[in-house]
Amino acid sequence: MRFPSTPAPPGGPPVPRHGASPDGIDRRVGRAFLAANTVPLAIGVVLSCSTALTGTRVYGRLTLGVVWGALQLGVFLVSVWWHEARSVRPDTPAERFFAPEDLPTGTAGTSPARERGW
Amino acid sequence: MTAPLLLSAGALDPVGSAARGPVITTFLVFIGLCLLWVFTLASQDEHPERLHTAGRSLPPVFNGVALAGEYITVVTLFAVSGAIALFGYDGFTSAVDSVIALGVLLLLAKRIRDSGQYTLGGLFSLRAPGREARTAAAVVTLVITVPVLMVQLRAAGISAALLIGMSSDTAQVACTVLMGCLVACFAAVADLRGTSFVQVVKVPVTLVALAVVTLLALRKFSWSPGGLLDAAVQQSIAPDGYLSRGLWAHTVGLGPLNTISDHIVVILGMAMMPHLILRVAASRCGRAARRSTSIAAGLTTIFYLLLITTGFAAAAVVGSGQISAVDANGQAAPILLASGLFGYGSTTRVVIITLVACVAFLAVLTAVSSITFTAAVSVTRDVLTRTGRPLTDTGQVWALRSTVVALCLGGLVLSTAVHSYPVEFLVTFSLGVAATCVFPVLVYSFFWPGFNRRGLLWSVYGGLLLCTVLTIFSPTVSGSAYALWPDASFDWYPFHTTGLISVPAAFLLGWLGSTRPPAQIGQGSRRTAHEYAKG
Questions:
Q1: What is the distance in angstroms between the Cα of B535 and the nearest Cα belonging to chain A?
Q2: Which of A62, A76, A112 has its CB closest to that of B99?
């Protein structure tokens, strides 16, 4: 993942360009994820309202309704993978700089997370 | 959509007398081992918030697998595969919606965790601090969880009765009580960490069991998925319409708007269940919550793909006619498929049936304990600790345990009391309430700084009232052959689910309540809430 930034002053952290903050990246990725899934879902909903459309043969026994549902699942799976890959992850050095507020935060009285795991 | 009707088997013995002994023995040994393991996971922690959220220390992958496990319930296992086996496309599209629901949760996961809250009460109080919002959240949590609890317990009892070949009402009630008591023992000592371990074990066991059943079914059709689908269509009750809309008996004649309503309820309702929100909120940080949800989405997609194949395989191997003869909604399909893959007397057959039975028990154990735990956390944290006399830590833990036991026993009593009634509408009602009372409030809380206490209360109570009234006057309660009271007829609301009306209405009420003067209401809380919501 790329984090556009201007050159850092000597000994200082990099300065993020306008709109390239982790939250900005997350928002853009979230919007793309929403769009990628909303379109197939909307078409799927419209299809599921019509017996004739869903029953249209596409290949062998497979009908348009079943093929579209499978396509929806495929798009969903790929978009989830893409969303996770493109979003800012907690273990990247850039994020550790950009988003110190996202370090583990328990509520009052809880023990904050310490151990690393899978 | 999936209507998780309970098994209503007549005289049926899919296991067979020869295999019953080994199946029951192995099943009981498995239950014993599970309970022994569960008691080793029992928490001695006296700090309430560490019990509620496991100290927010669960690693993202571990929590993600556990979140996927929350989706694997006995109702899902039997209802979805059964619906696909009997109703083809109608069941299939419901399964697709269930997966897509995790996308909604994924979009909100980081904000939920970053809010620092883990009950609905906490999330509701982001915009409206005070007892009213927390009480409303506790009411909504109970209204969502108790019906689901009843259906899970009853489905558990009836599937257990099916396995022992005793399908009389008395045997089913006895099995329900027995299973309920076993599960209550676990729920009473469990915390989030303990249930997470069992969830994490359940996911691979379930996926392996479904994969084995699917592969064995494919082997019967020379490893040809096309051949399996072809057989499923041929063996269905209506080969011409099996892979197109309209076979689902509950929704026949209700029209396209009913279909849209079903989509809304399944997608939003399944995303907003309180036990899922608790698990997401128990993540280490916002981005860990998102990562856990992504992992859960991947695993859940695999689970549903296997479940869809199992449904089609059941139709192909057993035949829809035989499945519907056992249960009108096909929920015996997985057990019938497991018993139909090999001939009587085969050892492999005993192993497969036992495997399915063990998966079903794990699903009941985890689902019931998660649901009761979440409801108890909500009651304890949002109601009991907000009284005039705050509870000590020990008092809170005691209250939590007592509430869990009370919920389990209450659910069990209700479940046995309504045993002879078709209560499938309870699950759709719960999903409708989750979609109506939780989703709009969270969206407004996270994205609209102008949302205030009045808007929240109008949205929650107005939505809840609408859901209740519309459900009472829907075809699920009267006026249809599948209704609670089929002979009565007061079904003026024409849809099977409430989402089409209640979700937009809840949004509208939230907006109206928030924008209606006097505008100064909630001003004090807006700044704080906005800071939370920015995450």
A1: 9
A2: A76
A44 and B244 within 8 Å at the Cβ level: the answer is: no
Q: How far is A40 from chain B (nearest CA, A)?
A: 11
Distance between CA atoms of residues B380 and B391, nearest Å: 9
Instruction: State the CATH number of the domain containing residue B102.
Output: 1.20.1730.10
Tell me which chain B residues have a C-beta less than 8 angstroms from the C-beta of A94.
none
The residue in chain B having the minimum alpha-carbon distance to the alpha carbon of residue A75 is B100
Residue A63 pairs in a beta bridge with: A57
Please, which residues have CB within 8 angstroms of residue B232's CB and are 6 or more apart in sequence?
Answer: B85, B88, B242, B312, B313, B315, B316
Min distance B519 CA to chain A CA atoms (Å): 30
Does residue B391 register a pLDDT over 50? yes
User: Tokens 């969303």 sit at which residue?
Assistant: A83
B182 alpha-carbon distance from chain centroid: 19
Question: What tokens does B273 get?
Answer: 């269940």
Tell me, yes or no, whether A73 lies in a domain: yes
The residue range of the domain holding A54 is 20-98
Answer with the residue of higher pLDDT: B4 or B108. B108
Q: Which of B85, B192, B140, B188 is nearest to B412 (CA)?
A: B188
Comparing CB atoms, the residue among A34, A54, A112 nearest residue B244 is: A54
Mean pLDDT for the stretch of residues A56-74: 91
**A43 vs B: CB within 8 A:** no
Give burial (CB, 10 Å; 0-12/13-18/19+) of B520. Answer: exposed
Domain count, chain B: 1
Q: Is residue B518 part of a domain?
A: no
Query: Does residue A45 form part of some domain?
Result: yes
Q: Is residue B518 reached through a cis peptide bond, with omega within 30 degrees of 0 on the bond before it?
A: yes
Q: How many CB pairs under 8 A join A and B?
A: 157
On chain A, the residues whose CB falls within 8 A of the CB of B56 are 104-106, 110, 112-113
Residue in A closest to B298 by C-alpha? A77
* B436 lies in some domain: no
Give dist(CA B37, CA B29) in Å, integer: 12
Partners of residue B305 in chain A, C-beta under 8 Å? 73
> CB A51 to CB B246 under 8 A?
yes
Q: What is the ipTM score, two decimals?
A: 0.87
Domains identified in chain A, total number: 1
Residue B325 domain boundaries: 17-423
- Whether residue A29 lies inside any domain: the answer is yes
CB contact under 8 A, B294 and A55: no
Q: Distance from B376 to chain A by nearest Cα, in Å? A: 19
Examine residue B11 and state whether it is found in any structural domain, yes or no.
no
Q: What is the distance between the alpha carbons of residues B154 and B149, in angstroms, rounded to a whole number?
A: 9
pLDDT of residue B142: 95
Nearest-angstrom CA–CA distance, B13 and B28: 18
pLDDT tens sequence across B476-493 = 898 888 888 888 888 889
The pLDDT value given to residue A22? 72
Residue A48: inside a domain: yes
